[in-house]
Specification:
Elements lengths: L32 H22 L3 E7 L5 H17 L3 E7 L2 H9 L17 H10 L4 E6 L6 H14 L11 H9 L3 E4 L9 H19 L1 E6 L13 H11 L5 E5 L7 H10 L5 E7 L6 H7 L19 H6 L3 E4 L14 H12 L2 E2 H8 L4
Length: 376
């Protein structure tokens, strides 16, 4: 474990979320203090019960952006189980950083494969962190389930820093002596996103993806769809990871491509342009999600089929799915499924192992924080 020295304050504004909202949006900030406190109470009790049952003194908190799809919930369940196997001396918890995903998952936005509405209660990192702190775990690992160290990962870092600074509402303050002991013992760790290190993570993930999809690259072209950050939110300049991954994959086979839904100059049109420049204008095109789970982006932006996902009057529209866009540009679009759904990266054991290794090699929080904010 890498160590470091000083502790600095990172103040952020946190959006409040109440349980079981049936509608949500970016401007939904109507929570009362009472509902916020109840969220702390629910999680404090849940975690306290788990710790009392297990008798363990190590906590692992997995922080995902979130989803509302049942196949994604199942992927998170399997990820939690894999972490419990990898960390048998730890209690493992899962939380979402997206208020919208939390609210809509709780309301039951989607159904399972049998048409039944599925509801799941997930919570923000602040509630789980407070509960873990209230239970006074001696060692805490916070593991980002983000793919790149971008905007969403920055929010994870800020949430952990605010926890260590006891910065949530006064009615939920933790024991300052306990937090000071965590710092003094250097016993709170931050696990990095999947593609954090270009020299280690990119080659490992490229090797794993090639091992899984080499036959597809021989049969046609393989395009991975990641998320990406817009220019104004390209935190830590993380978008370059997609370019680096494409280069690493093309060292195995030039038929691999990596695009995004939100990174300038790397949309589906840009991927098609690179393919055409390399003499690829037709044939089979296999589409895969380069995201931790297969949620809305994978099902709709990537794999959506039919008139709903294609506007012939605006063929360059961002609302046109990759499946339809490439299908209307000379390719036979193919979305490999597991059951009825595409797969996310957490469902690929070799890729999941990279995340697990990040947790095992996690840095003391201060070391991780200052490596990203060296000017502070």
């Amino acid at each position: 474990m890498k160590k470091i020295k000083s502790f600095l304050v990172a103040a952020i504004a946190m959006a409040f979320v109440a349980p079981m909202f049936t509608a949500c949006g970016d401007d939904d900030k109507s929570d009362t203090v009472e509902s916020i406190v109840s969220e702390y109470t629910v999680n404090d009790q849940m975690v306290a019960n788990q710790k009392a049952k297990s008798g363990k003194n190590v906590a692992v908190l997995l922080v995902a952006f979130g989803s509302t799809w049942n196949n994604a919930f199942q992927a998170f369940d399997k990820t939690k189980a894999a972490y419990e196997a990898a960390f048998p001396n730890a209690d493992v918890y899962v939380c979402f950083s997206s208020d919208i995903c939390i609210n809509r998952a709780s309301a039951g936005e989607n159904t399972d494969d049998n048409g039944n509405i599925v509801r799941r209660d997930y919570y923000e990192p602040r509630y789980l962190l407070h509960a873990i702190g209230a239970a006074k775990y001696g060692t805490i690992y916070v593991q980002s389930l983000q793919v790149i160290p971008g905007e969403e990962f920055a929010a994870v870092v800020a949430a952990v820093k605010k926890f260590m600074n006891n910065g949530y509402i006064a009615t939920a303050h933790l024991d300052d002596d306990y937090l000071a002991q965590l710092e003094a013992n250097e016993s709170i760790f931050l696990g990095m996103p999947l593609l954090n290190d270009p020299d280690e993570d990119i080659p490992q993930v490229a090797k794993e993806l090639n091992s899984l999809y080499a036959s597809e690259a021989k049969d046609g072209t393989v395009a991975f769809m990641g998320h990406g950050n817009p220019d104004t939110y390209d935190t830590f300049k993380a978008n370059v990871r997609y370019v680096q991954l494409e280069e690493a994959l093309q060292a195995y086979n030039p038929n691999f491509y990596v695009g995004t839904v939100d990174m300038p100059d790397n949309y589906k049109q840009d991927v098609l342009g690179r393919m055409n420049d390399n003499g690829i204008s037709s044939g089979k095109l296999y589409l895969h999600a380069l995201m931790s789970i297969a949620g809305d982006h994978a099902h709709n932006d990537m794999a959506g089929q039919g008139d709903e996902y294609w506007d012939p009057e605006d063929p360059e529209s961002e609302d046109n799915s990759w499946y339809e866009y490439f299908g209307h540009n000379g390719f036979e679009s193919i979305v490999p499924l597991s059951g009825k759904h595409p797969l996310g990266l957490l469902e690929l054991p070799g890729v999941l192992q990279v995340w697990i290794n990040h947790t095992k090699n996690a840095e003391f929080l201060e070391d991780a924080y200052h490596s990203m904010y060296p000017e502070e």
